[in-house]
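Hi support team,

I submitted a single chain yesterday and got back a structure, but I'm not sure I'm reading the C-alpha cell output correctly. Could someone confirm the output below corresponds to the sequence I sent? I've pasted both exactly as they appear in my results page.

Thanks,
R.
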Amino acid sequence: PVKSEFGPWMLKALRVLRRGKLLRGTPFDPFGWSTERRAERRAIRDYAKLMAEIMAGLTPATAETAIALARLPLRVRGFGHVKAAAAARAAEEQASLLAQFRAGGPAPMAQAAE
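Hi R., thanks for writing in. Yes, this is the structure output for that exact sequence:
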C-alpha cells in the first residue's frame, strides 16, 4: 500500500461524505458493497450461527473451548490486507477449536509415565 497525499479540496469532499452517514447500511451505501464490507457482514452472520451451535452443545467439558471460539473475532483487527490475514488465521484456529468442541471438549492431556 502506498500513502496518498491530498490537497485542501479534500476537506470539502469529506464534508459532503459526512452527510452520507444517513445511507449507511442501506442499499444506497456506496461503500457497503466492497469486498471487505461484504466479508464483514458474512462474518457477522457466520458468528451468529456459530454461537447458536455453541449454545446448543454447551457442557461443562466444552466450556473452555466455547469461550475460546467466542473470543476469536476479537483477534480480527486492522484494515485491508492486515485484516484479511488476521481473519485467515482466526478461521484456521476456529476450525481446530470447532473440531475440539464437537468432539466434546479439549483433547485430554497425555499422562506422564510414572
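A quick pointer for reading it: The CA atoms of residues 23 and 30 lie 8 Å apart. Let us know if anything else looks off.

Best,
Support desk
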